[in-house]
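Reviewers asked in the last cycle whether our approach scales beyond single polypeptides. To address this, we selected a multi-component target totalling 1074 residues and predicted its structure end to end. The input consisted of the following lines:
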Amino acid sequence: MNDIIKLTLVETVDLIKTKQVSVKEIIETYIKRLQETEKFNMLSEKNYAEALNLADKADSKKTEDFRPLEGIPIAVKDIFCTKGNKTTASSKMLNNFVAPYESTVTRNLKEAGSIVLCKTNMDEFAMGSASDTCFQGEVINPWTDDFSKPLTPGGSSGGSAAVIAASGACFSLGTDTGGSIRQPASFCGNVGLKPTYGRCSRFGIIAFASSLDQAGPITKTVEDAAYALTHMASWDKNDSTSVNVPLPNLLKNIKEGVRGLKVGIPKEYIIDEMSDEIQKLLQTGSTWLKEQGAEILEISLPNTKVALPCYYIIAPAEASANLARYDGVKFGFRADGPFRDLNDMYCKTRGEGFGKEVKRRLLIGTYVLSSGYYDAYYIHAQKVRRKIVEDFNDAFKIVDVILSPTAPSDAFVLGEKKEDPINMYLNDVFTVPSSLAGLPAISVPAGLSNNNKPLGLQLISSKFTEDTLLKTAYALEKAASFSFTPSLDK
Amino acid sequence: MFIEKKVTKKIAFLARIGLTEKEEEQFSRDLSNILKWMEELKKVDVKNIEPLRNVNETQLIERDDAKSFKNISQDELLSNAPKKNGKFFTVPKVLE
Amino acid sequence: MSNSRPHKISGKTGDWEIVIGLEVHAQVSSKLKLFSNGSASFGSNENENLDFLDIGLPGTLPTINSYVIDQAIKSGLALNAKVNNFSIFDRKNYFYPDLPLGYQISQYKDPIVSDGYIDIDINESETKKIRIERLHLEQDAGKSIHDQSPEDSFIDFNRAGVALMEIVSHPDLSDWEEAGDYVAKLRNILRFANTCDGNMQEGSLRCDANVSVRKPNEALGTRCEIKNLNSIKNLMKAIEFEAKRQVKLLENGDTIDQETRLFDVNSGKTRTMRSKEEAHDYRYFPDPDLLPLILKKDRINKIFKTLPELPSQLKERLKSQYNLGTYDARVISAELETAKYFEDLSEGRDAKQAANWIITNLFGKLNELNKSIKDSPISSKKLGDLLDFVNSGTLSNKIAKDVFEEMFKSSKEAKDIIEEKGLKQISNEDDIEELVDKIISENETQVKQFKDGNNKVLGWFVGQIMKLTKGQANPSIVNKIIIKKLNN
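The resulting structure, written as structure tokens, was:
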């Protein structure tokens, strides 16, 4: 039984296709695993009954009728609207909300045969880097040894990353706005892939920052990520920002190797505050690729330093408008009355319905858009954003991929950074620039820190070149041979 | 860049977020710190740079004005309503 | 106050000029809404025909309606404006229960259409050009109903998301009559172009008026906005009241507060709108869920070719092609239904005659009963039949008018009335000769008067025949025969 959960997605697909194991057995195994790991508080909702039902249906099919992801159990970040389940964005505001429709990404996966096992906890409305603002409580990183000092799984897709670290599903879905797939993947020892902006449809994903949000898979291996993305991505006419560029075949040349590939290391990414172990990891990573025939070049992304403040103007500004619909009128939470008037209802509802971090960002967002500040902040940030895009365009004239650490540290202790927002925001220093530029990026587990916790390396490629990205990631993964898993019986 | 409490109050009302006194103080501090951090941004020379609207410079895809759309039932739409009366959503009375 | 135009308001310190700019919100005629698949039709039950976006469900996204874009282009062309090949959709952020997203998707700095104009009639011979600053597309809001319960307001989102064209004029209007005429003309043009049905009772066309006053040659005064005027009559009354209100305040040494006001139909006064007391900071920014709208020249040209004849073009054609006078041409082209009626009636007939009958006879009766041509009991076809009887000589013009009256009252067809009342015009020369012989033989005195050189008595003879035949004799034939007989 335990061997099933050790398998990769690709291996499980094969197992199911050849009917070596029944889907029911797979689903039951993973359900048991999730039940055993409840102490990590990864799940917002369990879907076990329906999952078993669908498992039976799958088992009654003939193999020739099997779809590409038939019977594959997945964990879905509670930001994707799934019909019939609650979708809460881990917020009190949507604590009892049941979406009457399905997101395009989960629909694609369901139509390919996957079975949603559960919805996962996250930072409220995807705003956070520690999954500690979840209305149903913090998510605990399965790599935690000492429960008196539980570690964060990262955020905002912490629940989804934790599930894969705990081997609770074949793969999970996350969303990445400033690093929310990559950083948790790094903290949990998984692969986390953020495709090019516009690859996956945003229809049915509860919006945080419209020009940045992107769905992606969190998996055990790079090949798994390639397989998952293949069945997630689609052009969607329901999403005006979705792009009609066909996804290249991600699996065909994934094992091709990196001979002759040019890898850039941005000199600005080697920051003073970076710990020795992160510096060393980066050097090791570059050596791994060099040994496989890649050429390592130093590049410059001059506007790296301002990417964080730029992001923390644009994302909250867009969020302040995207979250204005949560007003207690049509759906979701409404505070208890009596109310003096309508404005009182609004203020109480939104004051009580949103958590602290969300309120903080909504206030920033409202401020930077307000009269008198719009040009100085928002417009200025959008201009800086263009400069950041141009930095990458220039870099990709001389290199094919960019290598960097994913996060400036390993998983920190929950609550450590909570009262210091800026310190928390610095978690995203390596991931934010590629988000602003809409570029595809991936985190690959590369080694353990001095605390024996996972560390990830990030690769970034130019727009719509996920094939190049994934083959480089594959080579990195091969060299890293990261085979560590957390021991969960603590 | 110091944000006074009265500015925080005004912004909070614009965003219709009710804050306690304590929260007003705390958020004023947070906002001040965060906006100070933004000062780095101001140092960037953006002369002759156009603001970036979308990372993919594509065009708006248009939808047909066709009649074939399946209506969503009133019950489905009202299923999550916090307060309703018949098939109407209701809110505390607005005086114009 | 003088009767000259534009109206000025005279106060203790002299005359005051009025400066008016109008914002007209016109619902686009389309099947579906601007950014969602919700139905744009009017009159459904509350919260029926909605799409998920229309109540702002999490995760829903806007997608733009192609036909609505075409309608906006068409309207811009009909208003002599420039259609911009690049425009942006922006979010206008504020909180109100009938605004499901907490923002309205509108256009701010880069609208789809700019710099148009329409001409209004100042008097019989003069026109004035009213410049249109812009036309942009935006979402309509839902409806809030405040009188159904003491504690609650009821919200219906049917209208939320319907496509609106906001048409903003420059402050070129100088009194309430010009304002009324502008709206009537604008509405008429959009109806001719078939881009908006202009139904003000149903709310397809609404106006906001910006009103200020000033002494001649001085700088613009502080303006107040009067919102949601839903009839031309109310628009004019509201502006007149507001202008006078402002003059009174200023003459007293007070200042005008820049504010938003509502017009109370019952009292005929404008008042401050309570909920808008807090200043609005709309925090406009480009909507990141949408991309810029790029319009190619081909598309604009293609739509230009589909523009039907517009009111001003019809007016000119009536004058040049059919020799109608300015007044008649104006009346026929003033309303879409009138123009259509005229078109039907004048097909294969004399245009001037058709115009005359519509303006003098039909409108005469309709105005008496306060009816519009839409509700006319006499259709263009029926009136056409009547005109055909006149033109074929079956009816004299005079009798035709009587038949017309009867048709209006009873909705019967001309031929039935003529049959029933035996009103056919007598044109048979032999029959008339007989009657003329009779009259001549019975009236020797008048015959002698004629022979003595009194030509006027001819008319008397004609009158006698007409009396005898109850007006049914063909007057020109009677005339001819009497002359012939008398000269013998």
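The CA atoms of residues 79 and 89 of chain A lie 5 Å apart. We regard this as preliminary and will revisit it once experimental data from Aim 1 are available.
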